[in-house]
Amino acid sequence: AIEGLEAGSDPVRSSEGTGGAYFMLDSSQSKHLAVFKPTDEEPMAVNNPRDLPLSVDGEGLKKGTRVGEGALRECAAYILDHPKSGRRSFSGEDKGFSGVPLTCMVRCLHKKFNHPGGVNMKIGSLQLFTENNGSCEDWGPSDFPVEEVHKIAVLDVRLANADRHSGNILVSKGDDGKTALIPIDHGYCLPESVSVLFLLCGWSWLFNP
Asked: Which three-class secondary structure state does DSSP give residue 101?
């Protein structure tokens, strides 16, 4: 991603979502490498590019979350998604049980980021881009292997994920024809408080036709 920026590959803002998310390209400008989400462009944050109202009390779109903490939660989801054999520091494995893509906190400076004041140094989460065949919105539940559904459920229960829906689960078809589900967008996990209603409403993605 650094080589891409140095070669003049501008970040490309995604047209989807409620916050600022940027695809980071390689030096040829033909391949997506990662997704960068600045903290100050999160929903209801000061430089949000979607014209959402500014949070007056610091609470995010989801109850129990704070504006500007989404990037930290994205990183926490990756860290807590341990490989089957144990924590990465012991196992040496990169891929977690539920398949959350590699995510870390970074600083990035670029003129294409949304900042009316002209200061374009951003802090945010950087997540490895994963090749995919679309999201669960484009597929029916019968296409999802039971084991793949279970691994998403385990992750969301552990993280108390407040924002799981069919649009933030990617579908990947391997060369062997097997289907894998890839969980993304964890900016609303680990809320400060939860309700029974939230827990009951968090699984609608599984039943959508």
From this structure: coil
Give the side-chain half-sphere CA count within 13 A for 42: 27
DSSP 160-208: T-S---GGGEEEEE-TTS-EEEEE---TT-S-S---HHHHHHTTHHHH-
Q: Positive or negative, the Cα torsion across 105, 165, 48, 42?
A: negative
Per-residue pLDDT of 39-59, as tens digits, reads 999 999 999 999 999 999 999
Give the pair of three-digit tokens for residue 59: 């609470």
CB atoms within 10 A of CB 40: 20
Instruction: Annotate 53-90 with b (16+ C-beta within 10 A) or e (fewer).
Output: eebeeeebbbebbbbbbbbbbbbbbbebbbeeeeebee
CA distance 10 to 83: 34
| Distance in angstroms (rounded) separating the CA atoms of residues 101 and 99 | 6
What is the CB neighbour count within 10 angstroms for residue 42?
28
Measured between alpha carbons, how far is 120 from 80 in angstroms, rounded to an integer?
Answer: 31
Nearest to 138 by CA among 205, 191, 86: 205
Task: Say how far apart CA 17 and CA 152 lie, in whole Å.
Answer: 20
Q: Which helix (H) or strand (E) holds 7?
A: none
Q: What is the pLDDT of residues 70-91, one digit of tens each?
A: 999 999 999 999 998 888 877 6
Contact 184, 129 (CB under 8 A): no
Predicted structure pTM score: 0.89
